[in-house]
Amino acid sequence: MKRDEFLESGYVPEFIQWLETKLDKPGTFEHSFYLEKAGKEWRCGCLYEAFQAYWWPFSLIDPVSGEKVSGEGFEETFAFLTRLAEAFRRSVGEGDVAATQQCALAALEWGGALPKNRERILEMGPRICSYFRDVSHRLDLAKVTLGDHYDIRSNAGFTKLHFLLVDDLIMYDGRVGAAMGFLLPRFCEEKGLEAVPDSLRFSFGRDRGDKPGSSKYHRRDPSDGPYRFPEFTGDRWRHLNDNIKASWLLKAVADSTGSRFKELPQEPLLNKRLTALQSALFMLGYDVRTGVDSARPA
């Protein structure tokens, strides 16, 4: 299935239209939870407010300047990632192995995904540039089709690297997947659907610290009554295909929106409007439970 086929399939056009009308409408997606790392309650009333409340602290050495960079808000994050994307694409294109490794490791460190992926990057050795050149061509959203994308690694770390390389490809991690699942039951209920349409059954991923039996194990499982969603853990084909589908879908929303997200540009290198939508979902998906389960611990 190609992009236009997906965007015209099943209930996808209706979901895009439904979501676009609700992006900045107060009270449409009211949600709150205790954000442990920040030590505070987090809340939003719509996706635009979730974007405004974006929070992801980082502090690391910028491989471009060699200087320490830090921040926690969207603007600081977007500025850093834009510089990193420029350097990453340039190093991959020029075949600079050392610079490509440095950029990849910096992106993984920024995203909190370095521990499990550091060795994977280093083990690529001299072929790292050819690997990412191949990925950038094969994941071109205007040409890619859904299916078995052999030899393309897909996890919560590598989606960040693909985001830096490929125009309009979002970072699809467990939190973004959980947020998609948070929205869809509401759409299905309004449309009177008894189950989530297959084309919109996005997968989610648990945080690596959420062990079975722990109080947090279900915090990113958006399944609600008859509306069920799968995990992408251990299924890289599902993860990558959902990454592609979510990118197609959110780009269509970004293109058509009349909401306040429209104030943000969509120019390359990185699409700021699309990244803002993704960031809103990232925050929403931290904990998709409702009620007492997501409240501050006693």
Topology at a glance:
Blueprint: H1 3-7, H2 12-20, E1 31-35, E2 40-44, H3 47-52, E3 58-61, E4 68-71, H4 74-94, H5 97-110, H6 118-124, H7 128-138, H8 158-165, H9 174-191, H10 236-256, H11 272-284
Antiparallel strand pairs: 1-2, 3-4
Helix pairs in contact: 2-10, 4-5, 4-7, 9-11
Attribute tags:
single chain; two-stranded antiparallel ribbon; disordered C terminus; 298 residues; mainly alpha; 4 strands
Overview of the molecule:
The chain is mainly alpha-helical and 298 residues long. It has helices at 3-7, 12-20, 47-52, 74-94, 97-110, 118-124, 128-138, 158-165, 174-191, 236-256, 272-284; strands at residues 31-35, 40-44, 58-61, 68-71. The radius of gyration is 18 Å and the shape is globular. It contains eleven helices and four strands; from the N terminus they run ααββαββαααααααα. The strands form two sheets. Strands 1-2 form a two-stranded antiparallel ribbon. The chain is 45% helix and 6% strand. α2 packs across α10, α4 runs antiparallel to α5 (97-110) and α9 (174-191) crosses α11 (272-284).
